[in-house]
């Protein structure tokens, strides 16, 4: 199966390992991965700040970049949600609506792709430790992916999953919210860090780099002994 | 025939709404058939006895005592309850059902116990209110009863004052078993049909579910605020 | 009290809220209870999604035909001997109400809970005209006694106060000498207010749903005060926002079921009271005269716009009860009697961006509100839409953001620019990095690193590594 990787700008620049883990994982599962090099960003930062016209420019660019692909897979619930929103955003645009819809229909968040398209629930991963999983808002509420990550994680050998108290709470990232409304964001992320501590886990797993940068950044600042991992890296672990 | 009221400012106000809605005023609208109608699924096909059970269970949740009896025992039960509550003053509706259910001698029976019973006086306005305001118990029949929510429905009318179920400290409702329906849907539909036929809606329809309460102080449930502090229902088999 | 509350700027209100440890504890535990109540009530039904869809369908049909249903309502109210006044502005509404009260020579007005009367500042207008106005909802009364402390929630207005604070207010203002037990506080209110009800000559209520087909007003309450207000005084005035209407009893029933479940997790509240006109001939209690005031006050401007569905709101507060931002900053931070997500959408529409332009940004767009709303209003999308309007129509966004967004679109719409931008990142930020972390960043990063670390950009981007990997594998 041929899949095109949409790696997202955060991973491209800051979390390169997650990108590599995603490629390796997909290859292990028998996919042929290509990385369209012209890809940039899904447009979410501009879109969520109200700069729709500006966002549309990068959206159109991304539609073109992935036009040739059979499947587009991304290790980010939030950016995947953004692609899925494109038809809504280009509604009524004779040139772009159809093309946006085609992209949306073939876009999958990584765990969603593995479980729903590949039909795999055990990827053969091994990782020793106790972990908890952060259900990010866009991925669960807007994309509707709730079961897939839990299924995959429950089959990782050696990994004990603990429930995250109040897992429905937002971590306080919210893109530019995190820098515009810093004081509120701080309260929210503190609450999340507290929940992670209360879970008793030593590893925090998530499927969205934005959330993980936010929670992880706060965990580091507070020097908590909790390791933050992207789910792609967990699923690609073999030790 | 009652006087017709006035409507002020109506046309300019409604014209403006139509203008903002981008069309001419509409003087006739057909209400659509709603696509989803889950309200009819609740307690669908339940027997009268099933409904009694549902009602009894719900009463526990809404802090309401519930008793079951037969017509011939009703008077004895009510007298017993009045004594048990230590009541000295009782106000009731002026409603033919009191006689039908053998309750016309209630005041005589109770006068031996130093209990004063006031039947709603269709002629006297102020003394009804004055008596009810300090009465220990108010008694009415239920005109319709909702199993799901533990609700008695009261239609105001000449002998059926609003204050009887409101001002006394204890409210006692007599529920003829045949009045029990699954939920509010059935009663609302019946009233809707009457309106369509051109019947008058009672000036006051009260759906009462247990005693008055409030959660305004720290979200603690306080039972008994402005209305009755206690509510008791008696289901009477009227077959 | 009008819609606007407090004079402090947004930032200060927020930091006051965050510093109010008691308020935050109270709100957080209340949210927990609201949440489980709502979820249980929804679960019980088994098909909550169908209920929500029905609610949405009813609301959008009604608002789409609002002129028709209001006309029908007013005809039916007048047929039953009631009077209807259509008020385009707050002023018109207050003038009419004051006039009715004057004509009746009213001295004492008792009120049940009504947000729209707060919005139009009715109490003050009546007080100026020499009337005594008494709030009778327990929460509202507490606030009134406490020198008109503003409400912080649309269902439980005194949510920000604890029982000790309430005890002290009662003691200082009314000579209360019992404990802070909620039961004792409520009993005190019952006794005090009972006297007021019996003496009042005018009763004023809000309206949860007006029923067009019969000219009926329905009130959804727990305490019994709305029944008092509509049973004892000789004159009743009901004030409704123009959108609070349904076609028939059947829809009223559905929306009441949605409202009570979503608001407090109850199947029904203790009292649903449906009132049609003044009392009938031969009836002993109930008002002799009935007036219905239908208020626009800026709502009609929302019709026909992309924001129209906010008029579907049934004021259940479910969105407020799940909102994490509300939890941390409290109701007063919103500077409006309408707080939380619904307030962040509605307040700028009714009160303007000048006053409320920060509110749409006070959200992570986590969509918890949208998920909770019983009539499926896409609240987070409305917040986003506000941001668009602010940027594109109003041009009021902060300057640095505007510039960085320009850079953004240049950088992401063109791969060449993205390439340069992302390549430069490590160099640009390198000076700030230590052990792969940035803890005191420049520009917009400054706010980020105030509270958290930021990862240093990697020397090689993923795309560079990917290329290398490909080469190594001889592809
Ligand atoms: S917007 Fe929806 S959830 Fe919020 S108060 Fe209105 S109806 Fe309730």
Automatic annotation (TrEMBL), chain A:
<dbReference type="GO" id="GO:0006089">
    <property type="term" value="P:lactate metabolic process"/>
</dbReference>
<feature type="domain" description="Cysteine-rich">
    <location>
        <begin position="132"/>
        <end position="215"/>
    </location>
</feature>
<dbReference type="Pfam" id="PF02754">
    <property type="entry name" value="CCG"/>
</dbReference>
<dbReference type="GO" id="GO:0005829">
    <property type="term" value="C:cytosol"/>
</dbReference>
<comment type="function">
    <text>Is involved in L-lactate degradation and allows cells to grow with lactate as the sole carbon source.</text>
</comment>
<feature type="domain" description="Cysteine-rich">
    <location>
        <begin position="3"/>
        <end position="84"/>
    </location>
</feature>
<comment type="similarity">
    <text>Belongs to the LutA/YkgE family.</text>
</comment>
<dbReference type="InterPro" id="IPR022822">
    <property type="entry name" value="LutA"/>
</dbReference>
<protein>
    <recommendedName>
        <fullName>Lactate utilization protein A</fullName>
    </recommendedName>
</protein>
<dbReference type="GO" id="GO:0016491">
    <property type="term" value="F:oxidoreductase activity"/>
</dbReference>
<dbReference type="InterPro" id="IPR004017">
    <property type="entry name" value="Cys_rich_dom"/>
</dbReference>
From TrEMBL, chain B:
<feature type="domain" description="LUD">
    <location>
        <begin position="53"/>
        <end position="236"/>
    </location>
</feature>
<comment type="function">
    <text>Is involved in L-lactate degradation and allows cells to grow with lactate as the sole carbon source.</text>
</comment>
<dbReference type="InterPro" id="IPR024185">
    <property type="entry name" value="FTHF_cligase-like_sf"/>
</dbReference>
<dbReference type="Pfam" id="PF02589">
    <property type="entry name" value="LUD_dom"/>
</dbReference>
<dbReference type="InterPro" id="IPR037171">
    <property type="entry name" value="NagB/RpiA_transferase-like"/>
</dbReference>
<dbReference type="GO" id="GO:0006089">
    <property type="term" value="P:lactate metabolic process"/>
</dbReference>
<comment type="similarity">
    <text>Belongs to the LutC/YkgG family.</text>
</comment>
<dbReference type="InterPro" id="IPR003741">
    <property type="entry name" value="LUD_dom"/>
</dbReference>
<dbReference type="InterPro" id="IPR022823">
    <property type="entry name" value="LutC"/>
</dbReference>
<protein>
    <recommendedName>
        <fullName>Lactate utilization protein C</fullName>
    </recommendedName>
</protein>
From TrEMBL, chain C:
<feature type="binding site">
    <location>
        <position position="316"/>
    </location>
    <ligand>
        <name>[4Fe-4S] cluster 1</name>
    </ligand>
</feature>
<feature type="domain" description="4Fe-4S ferredoxin-type">
    <location>
        <begin position="310"/>
        <end position="377"/>
    </location>
</feature>
<protein>
    <recommendedName>
        <fullName>Lactate utilization protein B</fullName>
    </recommendedName>
</protein>
<comment type="similarity">
    <text>Belongs to the LutB/YkgF family.</text>
</comment>
<dbReference type="InterPro" id="IPR017900">
    <property type="entry name" value="4Fe4S_Fe_S_CS"/>
</dbReference>
<feature type="domain" description="Lactate utilization protein B C-terminal">
    <location>
        <begin position="386"/>
        <end position="471"/>
    </location>
</feature>
<dbReference type="GO" id="GO:0046872">
    <property type="term" value="F:metal ion binding"/>
</dbReference>
<dbReference type="Pfam" id="PF02589">
    <property type="entry name" value="LUD_dom"/>
</dbReference>
<keyword id="KW-0004">4Fe-4S</keyword>
<dbReference type="Pfam" id="PF13183">
    <property type="entry name" value="Fer4_8"/>
</dbReference>
<keyword id="KW-0411">Iron-sulfur</keyword>
<keyword id="KW-0408">Iron</keyword>
<dbReference type="InterPro" id="IPR004452">
    <property type="entry name" value="LutB/LldF"/>
</dbReference>
<dbReference type="InterPro" id="IPR009051">
    <property type="entry name" value="Helical_ferredxn"/>
</dbReference>
<dbReference type="InterPro" id="IPR003741">
    <property type="entry name" value="LUD_dom"/>
</dbReference>
């Amino acid at each position: 199966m041929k899949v095109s990787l949409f790696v997202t700008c955060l991973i491209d620049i800051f979390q390169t390992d997650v990108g590599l883990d995603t490629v390796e994982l997909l290859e292990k599962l028998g996919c042929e991965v290509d990385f369209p090099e012209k890809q940039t960003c899904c447009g979410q930062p501009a879109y969520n700040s109200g700069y729709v016209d500006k966002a549309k420019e990068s959206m159109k660019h991304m539609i073109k970049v992935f036009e040739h692909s059979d499947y587009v897979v991304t290790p980010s619930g939030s950016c995947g949600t953004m692609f899925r929103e494109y038809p809504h955003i280009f509604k009524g645009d004779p040139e772009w609506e159809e093309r946006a819809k085609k992209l949306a229909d073939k876009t999958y968040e990584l765990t969603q792709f593995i479980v729903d398209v590949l039909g795999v629930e055990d990827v053969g991963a091994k990782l020793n430790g106790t972990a908890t999983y952060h259900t990010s808002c866009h991925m669960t509420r807007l994309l509707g992916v709730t079961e897939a990550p839990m299924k995959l994680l429950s089959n990782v050998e050696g990994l004990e999953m603990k429930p995250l108290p109040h897992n429905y709470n937002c971590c306080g990232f919210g893109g530019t919210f995190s820098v515009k409304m810093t004081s509120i964001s701080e309260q929210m992320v503190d609450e999340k860090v507290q929940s992670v501590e209360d879970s008793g886990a030593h590893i925090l797993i998530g499927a969205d780099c934005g959330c993980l940068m936010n929670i992880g950044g706060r965990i580091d600042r507070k020097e908590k002994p909790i390791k933050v991992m992207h789910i792609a890296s967990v699923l690609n672990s073999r030790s | 025939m009652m006087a017709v009221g006035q409507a002020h400012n109506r046309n300019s106000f409604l014209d403006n709404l139509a203008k903002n809605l981008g069309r001419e005023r509409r003087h006739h609208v057909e209400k659509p058939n709603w696509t989803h109608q889950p309200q009819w699924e609740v307690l669908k096909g339940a027997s009268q006895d099933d409904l009694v059970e549902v009602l009894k269970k719900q009463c526990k949740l809404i802090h309401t005592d519930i008793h079951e009896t037969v017509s011939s025992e009703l008077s004895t039960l009510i007298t017993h309850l009045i004594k048990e509550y230590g009541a000295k003053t009782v106000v009731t509706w002026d409603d033919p059902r009191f006689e039908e259910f053998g309750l016309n001698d209630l005041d005589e029976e109770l006068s031996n116990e130093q209990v004063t019973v006031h039947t709603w006086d269709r002629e006297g306005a102020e003394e009804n209110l004055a008596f009810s305001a300090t009465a220990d118990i108010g008694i009415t029949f239920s005109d319709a009863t909702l199993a799901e929510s533990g609700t008695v429905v009261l239609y105001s009318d000449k002998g059926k004052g609003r204050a009887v179920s409101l001002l006394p400290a204890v409210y006692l409702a007599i529920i003829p078993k045949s009045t029990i329906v699954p939920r509010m849907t059935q009663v609302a539909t019946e009233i809707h049909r009457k309106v369509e036929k051109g019947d008058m809606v009672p000036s006051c329809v009260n759906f009462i579910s247990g005693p008055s309460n409030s959660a305004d102080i720290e979200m603690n449930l306080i039972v008994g605020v402005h209305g009755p502090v206690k509510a008791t229902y008696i289901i009477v088999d009227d077959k | 009290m009008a819609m606007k509350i407090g004079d402090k700027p947004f930032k200060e209100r927020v930091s006051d809220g965050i510093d109010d440890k008691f308020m935050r504890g109270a709100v957080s535990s209340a949210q927990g209870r609201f949440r489980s109540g709502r979820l249980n009530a929804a679960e019980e039904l088994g098909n909550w999604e169908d209920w929500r869809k029905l609610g949405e369908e009813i609301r959008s049909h009604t608002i789409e035909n609002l002129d028709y249903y209001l006309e029908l309502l007013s005809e039916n109210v007048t047929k039953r001997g009631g009077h209807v006044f259509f008020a385009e502005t707050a002023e018109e509404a207050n003038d009419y109400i004051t006039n009715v009260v004057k004509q009746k020579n009213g001295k004492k007005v008792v009120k049940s809970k009504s947000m729209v009367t707060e919005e139009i500042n009715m109490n003050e207008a009546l007080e100026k005209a020499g009337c005594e106005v008494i709030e009778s909802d327990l929460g509202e009364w507490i606030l009134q006694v406490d020198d008109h402390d503003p409400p912080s929630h649309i269902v439980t207005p005194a949510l920000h106060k604890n029982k000790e604070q309430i005890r002290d207010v009662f003691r200082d203002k009314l000579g209360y000498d019992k404990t802070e037990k909620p039961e004792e506080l409520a009993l005190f209110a019952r006794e005090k207010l009972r006297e007021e009800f019996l003496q009042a000559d005018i009763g004023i209520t809000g309206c949860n749903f007006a029923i067009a087909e019969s000219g009926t007003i329905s009130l959804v309450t727990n305490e019994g005060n709305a029944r008092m207000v509509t049973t004892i005084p000789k004159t009743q005035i009901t004030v409704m926002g123009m959108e609070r209407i349904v076609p028939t009893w059947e829809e009223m029933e559905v929306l009441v079921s949605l409202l009570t479940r979503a608001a407090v997790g109850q199947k029904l509240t203790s009292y649903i009271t449906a009132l049609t006109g003044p009392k009938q001939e031969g009836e002993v209690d109930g008002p002799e005269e009935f007036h219905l005031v239908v208020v626009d006050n800026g709502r009609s401007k929302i019709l026909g716009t992309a924001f129209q569905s906010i008029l579907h709101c049934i004021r259940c507060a479910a969105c407020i009860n799940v909102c994490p931002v509300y939890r941390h900053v409290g109701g007063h931070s919103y500077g409006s009697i309408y707080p939380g997500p619904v307030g962040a959408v509605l307040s700028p529409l009714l009160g303007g961006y000048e006053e409320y332009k920060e509110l749409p940004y006070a959200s992570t767009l986590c969509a918890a509100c949208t998920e909770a709303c019983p009539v499926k209003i896409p609240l987070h999308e409305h917040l986003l839409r506000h941001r668009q309007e602010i940027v594109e129509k109003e041009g009021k966004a902060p300057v640095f953001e505007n510039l960085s967004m320009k850079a953004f679109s240049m950088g992401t719409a063109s791969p060449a620019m993205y390439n340069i931008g992302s390549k430069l990142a490590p160099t640009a930020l390198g000076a700030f990095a230590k052990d792969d972390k940035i803890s005191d960043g420049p520009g917009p990063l400054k706010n980020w690193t105030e509270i958290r670390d930021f990862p240093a950009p990697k020397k090689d981007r993923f795309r560079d590594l990917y290329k290398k990997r490909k080469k190594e594998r001889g592809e």
